């Protein structure tokens, strides 16, 4: 391919609305172009990179006998109503009506459509197991689309769905997909981690995410310093810390004391000369999914002053569809009679949950439920009844790893893949059954598996770039070789370029030729920005000496090679 005919325009200036390196570089290198927030046109290079990843996925899935189909982008409301996700998905689902008033949505995911697809034909246990996938456009009306292809409204997803006779078989399918994902991501040569994850509102109880490690990643991950343990911070268990012990052994007399204007843990810590981790804070959440209900379903959560509540853990504890919501100051006041900052568990009439981090606390300080007053020498059981000890806090760096090996360390990740064991949530809602060996109807056990195709391509750039531009990993590079053709008008030089191009193509190597009327300096800068693995410079002076220059984008090493050897040498470099 020749640049002069490629409709490719690079950009020197850093785009104003791009925050992270990969987004800036994708715009500057002409890989993508914004149409409107969260919606992009992929240029030929981004499309080529995406296609390379799709080929890797298809190859790995073929090894396991997966079936590829293509489901529609437009879904009828009725299918989503069957699972109640027409309501549950809220504003994330883009809906519209056709001329007859019939309601539709744009597919944000395809559990409903695939379950409908199989339930009509799947009759017997003999038809199982089956795993079906597609590579298709999704639309989610993200609140804050950002970072280019990382969080788009419209994006390409590879989604797969497994159907099995029982839980064990479904978990085998899950393991099969886990292994296939691992093979595919290994082939990209990226630094990635597989972490325990939350199932979100998709259902089921087992799920893992694949994360490309990058400082700009939106997800916080907890990894062990000494073992393979890794979890999304959203679900990472927080292990009881025995060394945080407070308040002695004897229960002392309860006492109220004034704390004028002291509403934050930091202020209270200073005024009482007590470390934040030895104070107890009380937070209020509502644990209901019923948004329409007038009454709340409030609970109080007590935890150490330096810990944070994890609303996803509350969601999972109560089996909610969405993370628990914090009560407003007004709602807190109705329950406690005081403003947040002066509240505590004594004398309130709602269920009280104590985080495990407080297991070794006695005679502690809490808000008095009276503005500007606190209580000291408070003790569970004597001064109030607690409903349950729970793990409701965020795990943090330095905590013990839940597997008992090493300590937790935080790293940032970009979620590129997510696998779920679903159980029978969808088959039950949509009456998808098969007849077992005894001729009895049983619900199909399901799993679902997603990979963000565009997000993965961008994550590769986020992980692999330098100050000059993209440094493509070979597996995703739109082209393997970038020829800087310095004298396109010179017939002899052009002949050498054509020979090298044809020779490399014969070895299955993708070649891009910069044959524009530009100065060498401009061409080199653009080659660095676009970042294909190898650059070959062919110019008049070199050709008259029988030589060309080969430049390695990642290491920036240069070498001169005789023209006669360049094809075989580059072929060896790339194909090994
Ligand atoms: P996120 O937490 O990032 O919003 P999700 O957990 O909602 O993603 P899944 O439903 O698990 O996403 O979708 C499967 C995969 O699709 C994700 O692992 C991710 O790689 C990709 N993906 C999800 N949302 C987007 C998006 N808005 N833009 C690009 N890729 C996305
Ligand atoms: Mg996910």
Largest sheet: 9 strands, mixed
Number of helices: 15
Poorly predicted sequence stretches spanning 5 or more consecutive residues: none
In CATH terms, the superfamily of the largest domain is Bira Bifunctional Protein, Domain 2
- Which small-molecule ligands are present, each listed once? adenosine-5'-triphosphate, magnesium ion
Q: What portion of residues is helical?
A: 25-40%
Structural class: alpha+beta
Domain tally = 3
Q: Which percent range describes the beta-strand content?
A: 25-35%
What is the average of the pLDDT values? 95
Oligomer kind: single chain
Give the second-level CATH assignment, the architecture of the largest domain: 2-Layer Sandwich
Any chance you could write out the topology, listing elements then pairs?
Layout: H1 21-28, E1 32-36, E2 39-42, H2 44-63, E3 67-68, E4 74-76, H3 77-82, H4 85-88, E5 95-97, E6 103-106, H5 111-119, E7 130-139, E8 154-164, H6 167-188, E9 192-196, E10 206-213, E11 219-224, E12 230-232, E13 255-258, H7 265-272, E14 280-286, E15 298-304, H8 311-318, E16 325-326, H9 329-336, E17 352-355, E18 364-367, E19 373-378, E20 388-390, E21 408-423, H10 425-429, E22 433-435, E23 441-443, E24 445-452, H11 453-463, E25 465-466, E26 469-470, E27 481-485, H12 491-506, E28 511-514, H13 520-530, E29 534-538, H14 540-544, E30 547-552, E31 558-562, H15 563-575
Parallel strand pairs: 3-7, 15-17, 17-20, 27-28, 27-29
Antiparallel strand pairs: 1-2, 4-6, 5-6, 7-8, 8-24, 9-10, 10-21, 11-12, 11-21, 13-19, 14-15, 14-16, 18-19, 21-24, 22-23, 25-26, 29-30, 30-31
Bound molecules: adenosine-5'-triphosphate (ATP) and magnesium ion.
């Amino acid at each position: 391919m020749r640049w002069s005919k490629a409709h490719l325009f690079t950009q020197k200036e850093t785009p104003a609305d791009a925050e992270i390196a990969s987004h800036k570089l994708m715009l500057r290198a002409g890989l993508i172009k914004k149409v409107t927030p969260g919606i992009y046109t992929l240029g030929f290079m981004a499309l080529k990179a995406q296609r390379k990843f799709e080929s890797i996925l298809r190859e790995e899935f073929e090894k396991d006998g997966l079936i590829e189909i293509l489901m529609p982008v437009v879904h009828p409301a009725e299918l989503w109503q069957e699972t109640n996700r027409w309501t549950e998905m809220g504003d994330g689902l883009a809906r519209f009506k056709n001329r007859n008033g019939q309601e539709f949505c744009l597919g944000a995911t395809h559990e409903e459509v695939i379950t409908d697809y199989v339930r009509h034909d799947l009759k017997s246990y003999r038809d199982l197991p089956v795993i079906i996938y597609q590579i298709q456009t999704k639309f989610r009306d993200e609140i804050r689309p950002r970072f280019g292809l990382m969080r788009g409204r419209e994006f390409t997803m590879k989604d797969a769905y497994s159907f099995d006779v029982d839980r064990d078989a479904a978990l085998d399918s899950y393991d099969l997909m886990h292994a296939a994902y691992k093979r595919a991501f290994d082939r990209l040569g990226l630094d990635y981690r597989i972490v325990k994850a939350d199932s979100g509102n998709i259902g089921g109880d087992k799920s893992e995410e694949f994360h490309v490690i990058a400082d700009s990643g939106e997800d916080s991950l907890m990894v062990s310093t000494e073992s393979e343990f890794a979890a999304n911070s959203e679900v990472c268990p927080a292990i009881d810390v025995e060394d945080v012990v407070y308040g002695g052994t004897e229960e002392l007399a309860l006492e109220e004391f004034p704390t004028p204007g002291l509403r934050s843990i930091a202020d209270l810590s200073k005024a009482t000369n007590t470390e934040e981790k030895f104070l107890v804070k009380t937070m209020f959440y509502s644990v209901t999914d019923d948004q329409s209900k007038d009454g709340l379903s409030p609970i109080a959560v007590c935890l150490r002053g330096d810990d944070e509540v994890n609303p996803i853990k509350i969601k999972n504890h109560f089996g909610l569809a969405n993370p628990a919501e914090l009560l407003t100051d007004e709602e807190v006041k109705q329950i406690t009679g005081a403003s947040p900052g002066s509240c505590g568990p004594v004398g309130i009439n709602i269920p009280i949950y104590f985080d495990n981090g407080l297991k070794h606390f006695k005679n502690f300080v809490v808000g008095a439920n009276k503005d500007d007053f606190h209580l000291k020498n408070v003790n569970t059981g004597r001064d109030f009844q607690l409903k349950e000890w729970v793990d409701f806090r965020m795990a943090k760096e330095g905590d013990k790893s839940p597997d008992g090996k090493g300590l937790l360390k935080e790293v940032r990740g970009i979620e590129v893949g997510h696998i779920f064991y679903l159980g029978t949530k969808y088959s039950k809602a949509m009456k998808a059954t098969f007849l077992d060996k005894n001729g009895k109807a049983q619900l199909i056990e399901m799993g679902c598996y997603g990979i963000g195709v565009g997000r993965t391509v961008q994550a590769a750039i986020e992980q692999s770039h330098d100050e000059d531009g993209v440094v493509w990993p070979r597996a995703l590079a739109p082209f393997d070789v970038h020829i800087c053709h310095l004298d396109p008008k010179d017939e002899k030089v052009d002949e050498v370029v054509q020979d090298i191009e044809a020779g490399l193509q014969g070895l299955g190597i993708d070649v891009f030729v910069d044959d524009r009327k530009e100065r060498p300096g401009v061409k080199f800068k653009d080659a660095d920005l676009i970042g294909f693995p190898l650059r070959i410079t062919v110019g008049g002076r070199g050709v008259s000496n029988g030589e060309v220059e080969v430049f390695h984008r990642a290491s920036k090493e240069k070498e001169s090679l005789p023209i006669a050897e360049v094809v075989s040498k580059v072929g060896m470099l790339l194909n090994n």
